[in-house]
Amino acid sequence: MSVATSAAAAFQSNYGSDPAGLWAAPGRVNLIGEHTDYNDGFVLPFAIPQHTVAAVAPSTEPGWTVCSDLVNESVSFGTTGPGELDGWAGYVAGIVWALQDAGFDVPPARIALSSDVPLGSGLSSSAALESAVLTALVELGDIDLPVAKRPGLAQRAENVYVGAPTGIMDQSASIRCEQGRALFLDCRSLEVEQIPFDLAAEGLAILIINSNAPHQHVDGEYGARRKSCEEAARILGVPALRDVSVDELDAALAKIDDEVTRRRVRHIVTENQRVLDTVALLRAGQVREIGPLLTASHVSMRDDFEITVAQVDIAVEAALAAGAYGARMTGGGFGGCVLALVDAGRADETTAAVLRAYEDKGFTAPTIWPATAAQGARKL
Fold first, then answer.
1. Residue 174 annotated as binding site
2. Would you list the domain boundaries of the chain?
3. Does the annotation list 124 as a binding residue?
4. d(CA 42, CA 33)
5. pLDDT (tens digit, 0 to 9) for every residue of the chain, 380 residues total?
6. Which of 142, 201, 345, 377 could form a Cys-Cys staple with 135, CB 3.0–4.6 A?
7. Residues 272, 243: contact at Cβ < 8 Å?
8. Residues that bind Mg(2+), according to the entry (predicted)?
9. pTM of the full predicted structure?
10. Was domain 3-196 assigned CATH 3.40.50.2300?
11. 156: burial class by Cβ within 10 Å (0-12, 13-18, 19+)?
12. CB 36 within 8 A of CB 275
């Protein structure tokens, strides 16, 4: 059963009628550019085929009711403030709150959710949920909110209502990505460029390796990294670490006494440059050549930003040993997924190598599948 069919069935089962429509929003893979988003830097995500579908219809009763076939639970709520509703339904309430806080009238609605974006894997299941619900409510209520403004509103819902200090990349990818393209996003100006990323035409594939070591963003580690970056920018007298170039890095590091903070700065500054270098190669059609940049990104996350775990490190090492052009962890870290750029004809061989490596270490087997660049949020 497809996700759309599941969402429609859940709506029928819970509300006894058909929805007015189905709206979908995808998860995302970040090709490169990790933790650069909240530093006003550059990111290069692409949407994946896995998505969340919201089946929605207007309600004659005030307030909103939402159910999910993932938790077999229904939650009703009226107008709420940040933090008043937690758990999975808090993401929906957060979207309603953010729309209302921006001055929009949000139509009362009944919502049923279904998703095949893996939870806790670093593929942004939360942004997919937010983006599907936001797209549905905007269209259902004929709300005048341009697509370019929607990611910021969804981010505000997650930052302020849910309390997760994420940047704007996830929501931007889920809402603005295009099929066969990666989204080059300047997180300061919010300017975007759709970068060609047709792997099949090059005989290539991206393998997504879900380490099955789940992470959580609403915890101390992600927030600590962000706080460290903000403190470093203050010490350096710049608005954000995006304002430090690679050429200025050594001089900047000399101004920082704390060794841990120096490592954090080095990751952000070099990672921003790696995004720019990757975009330049993709514009030139040199897809294989981005591999070393992907691997260098992982090394930086492992050694300087210290956000990897043994399972993702082993996946990267095994993929590279099997001939991958490059491999890196993707997402906020502390678990989640790895991506590996491989020849399409060697995808099975690489998959087998990673599975063997996990078995040798006694880790829970990873889940591995090929990813293609998919379409962002839309009505089905």
1. no
2. 3-196, 200-371
3. yes
4. 6
5. 799 999 999 999 999 999 999 999 999 999 999 999 999 999 999 999 999 999 999 999 999 999 998 888 899 999 999 989 999 999 999 999 999 999 999 999 999 999 999 877 677 889 999 999 999 999 999 999 999 999 999 999 999 999 987 879 999 999 999 999 999 999 999 999 999 999 999 999 999 999 988 655 446 888 899 999 999 999 999 999 999 999 999 999 999 999 999 999 999 999 999 999 999 999 999 999 999 999 999 999 999 999 999 999 999 999 999 999 999 999 888 888 999 999 999 999 999 999 999 999 999 999 999 999 999 999 99
6. 377
7. no
8. 126, 158
9. 0.91
10. no
11. buried
12. yes
Q: Which residue has the tokens 């990672």?
A: 271
Query: Does 36 appear as a known binding residue?
Result: yes
Element (H, E) at 22: strand 21-32
The verdict on whether residue 158 carries a ligand-binding annotation is yes
Q: Which residues have CB under 8 Å from 365's CB, separation 6+?
A: 212, 355, 358, 359
Q: Tell me whether residue 172 is annotated as binding.
A: no
| Alpha carbons 173 and 167: distance in angstroms, whole number | 11
Catalytic residues: 170
Structure tokens at 238: 């710049």
Secondary structure class of 179 (helix, strand, coil): coil
Q: How many CA atoms lie within 13 A of 190 on its CB side?
A: 14
